[in-house]
Amino acid sequence: MVKEREKVLKTGEQLAKYILDTSFHDLPKEVIHQVKRLILDSVGTIYMGTRKEEASGIKRFLMKLGVTQDCTIIGADLKTNCQWAAFSNASYAQVHDCNDGHLEAAALGGSAHPGRVVIPTALAVGEKLSSSGKEVLSAIAIGYDVAVRVRGMSERPPSSAYCAAAIASRLMGLDIDKLRFALGIAGYHSPRNFPTAQADTNFLSNGYLVKVGIEAAFLADEGFFGPPLGDDRRLSTRFTERGLGKEFEILNTYIKPYPTCRMTHGAIEAILDIKKNTDLKHSDIEEVTINQLTHGMYIAESKVDTDSYYKTCQFNLPYISACAIIDGEITEKQFTKERIADPIVHELAKKIKINPDEDLDAVYPETFRRPTIVEIKTKNGKKHTKHIEYPKGSSKNPLTDDELFEKFIRWAGPSITKEKALKIKKSIFELEKLTNVNTFTNLLSA
Predict the structure, then answer these.
(1) What's the rounded Cα separation, in Å, for the pair 393 and 101?
(2) Can you identify the CATH homologous superfamily of domain 2-257+415-444?
(3) Half-sphere exposure of 328 (CA within 13 A, CB side)
(4) Where are the domains of the chain?
């Protein structure tokens, strides 16, 4: 038993020191600003998720638990305990696949979408502990680094559970030994058998990841320990040498303009740009060809029809492209049962061909590019072509603060008033002034 404890304590020391020793004043201004942007973005996606019929059972489930009611469920008129509040908010964040992401982490075995775990964890634990705004902002910046930097190619590590445990441990003030035990417990008990099919368990999986991470910190604080941090030595063992504490991965995180798989965004952007600059109508189209990264061909594998599940449609590029051509937008409206049931969309989707293009692979993922080429042929012989290198929302082509707030209004708007949206935005961008983050989280209830 003693040897096993010593083995844990020899693992992840660089990462553990970074988690505990990094202060708010160590964070560059642009990092703090990006944290605030990603909080606003995540809260908007959570509000959008709460409206989806498929997720309505979460609230009913939580009402039956009978647990302490001290933490906010965003958009709800009830509270629950810390870990279940984080569970519900993380689940809602994933309902529409509009959460932020990190291209390299997705490609190289880290947490592909850190925000859906990091931000619900920090807000729930921060609320339980009445943490200051500065502490919550710091924990979020650190959480993104843990989620992205713990990677593995031979076996993808449970980076999301690790980052939830790291955030909770830091906010709780655990010492370095307990922190490493918390990481070990979270990694060992992290759910591993999530289904690949798009089903309700897809968004619930993120809830379980934050829940196990928070509980791991609670257990470590009571003296329990877990196995060593699991990671791939080639990619993440030498954390300090790879920029930990000097380069912050939150700055490389993209924000999605559309509620679909990120691999579809280049094509969406290209199609909407062509429509904006032409008088293109869906009835004019002869054929659409989309050249896609070979790594991203999974977005053309599933077959959808008028009775398909909305999640399947969010990962189907022909369907999404058809909607973009016909509707001139991609929002949650394109994934309602009524829109999916329209045979006109599916008829157009049959004319859309997705081709794997090995030439595009040369710049992926190291340069943060996600290239796509769209060519639209019309019945009168015209061709419209658009090449996208950095889809909107990437670190190389970011949403402005105004564009981000417009997105927040679109996603959260049906759930809250414009006045409340402005209050939420103001509170987020002044978060470091709060001595108690509960002042902010209380704004997020129904």
Answers:
(1) 10
(2) 2-methylcitrate dehydratase PrpD (1.10.4100.10)
(3) 7
(4) 2-257+415-444, 262-388
DSSP state of 386: E
User: 336-366 burial, b for 16+ CB within 10 Å, e for fewer?
Assistant: eeebbeeeebbebbebbebeebeebeeebbe
Residues near 286 by beta carbon (within 8 Å), at least 6 away in sequence: 351, 377, 378, 379
134-169: burial string, b at 16+ Cβ within 10 Å, e else: bbbbbbbbbbbbbbbbbbbeeebbbbbbbbbbbbbb
Q: Where are the alpha helices (DSSP H) in 173-330?
A: 176-189, 200-221, 233-236, 265-277, 310-314, 317-327
Q: Buried b vs exposed e over 193-206: b needs ≥16 C-beta within 10 Å?
A: eeeeebebebbbbb
Residues in the chain: 446
The angle subtended at Cα 91 by Cα 90 and Cα 94, nearest 5°, is: 90
For 137, the token pair is 């902002």
The angle, 0 to 180 degrees and rounded to 10, between the axes of the packed helices 82-94 and 115-129 is 150
* Phi-psi category of residue 92: left, alpha or beta, with phi > 0 → left and psi -120 to 50 → alpha: alpha
User: Rounded CA gap, 92 and 179, in Å?
Assistant: 28
Q: Are 100 and 253 in contact (CB under 8 A)?
A: yes
Q: In the 8-state DSSP scheme, what is residue 384?
A: E
Name the residue with tokens 């009402």.
63
Burial class (CB in 10 A: 0-12, 13-18, 19+), 297: middle
Whole-model pTM: value is: 0.95
Location of structure tokens 């705004």: 133
Dist CA 54 CA 396 (whole Å): 35
| Blockwise average pLDDT, block size 10, the chain, 446 residues | 67 88 97 98 96 90 88 94 97 94 91 96 98 98 96 84 97 95 92 63 89 97 87 67 88 97 97 96 96 93 93 95 98 96 98 95 84 97 96 96 97 93 98 98 93
Residue pLDDT, tens place only, 17-56: 999 999 999 999 999 999 999 999 999 999 999 999 888 8
**CATH 3.20.10.10 at 262-388, yes or no:** no
Same fold, 2-257+415-444 and 262-388: no
SS (H, E, C) 234-275: HHHCCCHHHCCCCCCHHHHCECCCCCCCHHHHHHHHHHHHHH
